[in-house]
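Before going further, learn to read the protein records used in this course. A complete example follows; check for yourself that the lines match position by position.
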Amino acid sequence: MFSLLLQASGVFSNWAIFIGRFHPVLVHLPIGFLLIAALLEMARRTGKITVGESVISFILFWSAIGATFSCIAGYLLSLGGGYDAELLSEHQWQGIGVAVFAWVAWLVKSDRFGEKIPFGPAFYLPALGLATVLTMSAGHHGGSLTHGEGFLTQYTPEPFRSIAGMPPIENKVVELKPNENVDQAVVYKEIIQPILEMRCVSCHNANKQKGDLRLDDVALMLKGGEGGPAFIAGKSMESDMIKRCLLPEDDDDRMPPKGKPALTADQIALLAWWIDNGAPVDKKVVELKASEAIKPALAALGKGGGSAGVEAKSKGSAILGLKVAVADPKAIEALKAAGLIVNNIAQDQNLIEVSAVNAPEFGDRQMELLAPLIEQLAWLKLGGTKITDASLKELGKFKNLNKLHLEHTSITDAGISHLKTLNRLEYINLVGTKLTDKGLMDMASMPGLRSVYIWQSAVTDSAVAQVGRQHPELMIVNGFNEASVSQFLKAGDSTATIIQNPVK
């Protein structure tokens, strides 16, 4: 009845979700308290330390309180669904057992109640032991619910695997591997399934089904979850899988959610292409129609480029193969200290990416932190920060800048004019800025520019059409509809498919 009430009322449902999401925080309280109580009890009984029984009783009381609140929050969290029923049931009853035996241990240990309970001392050690064991067992099942079955034991090394009778470690795909002959690759098995394994299946599998959705099998994707089928064969732009991937990062419905690695533009393009071709399970690349938009993404999967059917017609990025000196470690540390994220953009280059996604207060004064990296900086994300045109005047000096995010900032045409010297700039995001027709026309003459994103700016449709006629090679996205999404998939949010690695 309680769960039905929570699910039937929007207000109660919101409260349930809000409280339930504190379960991962609350659950650590009984774990810590019970382990401390058990250790103190063992040390006291073996004469290692001297500690009063009232201290242990106090710790047990708060472990019981913590376990109780954890059970309540965990139950509310489970109402959201998406978990393996059998595993969830075991986890719930183990959690309840922790709370019950923690209360029993405290009751028989306390000065107030212990003497009133017949044979109380006889119950104490069994209750404390069971509470401690169940804490570890419940923790194991909790990890499996959150990260998938066998999370704690998945990477057990030898010889312990053999001793325990466990099968050898299964090496799952962690990245799309280059293919000798892309045309002959089975699309679902060798391209689509690895993408889903990397980005989606951890939350949508047999043991963990967020939104009652599984993405580890095509039939189950078509069956769908709470929001319906994951995709509609032949209609990628109407498919929930694609629409959610294209939502803004801070949107609650975006997938993967904020904090988890997002799909790259190429990966989204490949998923959409597969869906548009009917989502076949057994067909090869050469058997499907490859549009101009998808050819660069397919070519990137090959070793040394695609074959005749998949060859990308667009030229390579201006920064591919560019060699520069190693970045100053002190400059990188200064950026990190300011809250910026710094990554290498390739294993064999010293070019770097700097992102202010976690530093919205970044402004003109902090631009001096980038100065020591004038040669190494290639990708820069300043979207949503407090920079002005003054910052763009400084950016005009970064000759190797290749990709620039300025969305939702206060920059204007005057600032854009300072970027004309950036011959290697290929991508610029100006969504939600004060850019006008003049600024767009100034940018259009930049020799290396390939794609510009300007919706929610002051640029008019007539200016977009004019620039499009004058510069047909320049991709201008001025609205988020089906046509612009297709352009997004073609242009991407990057100029090349490059493996990123954190700068040490």
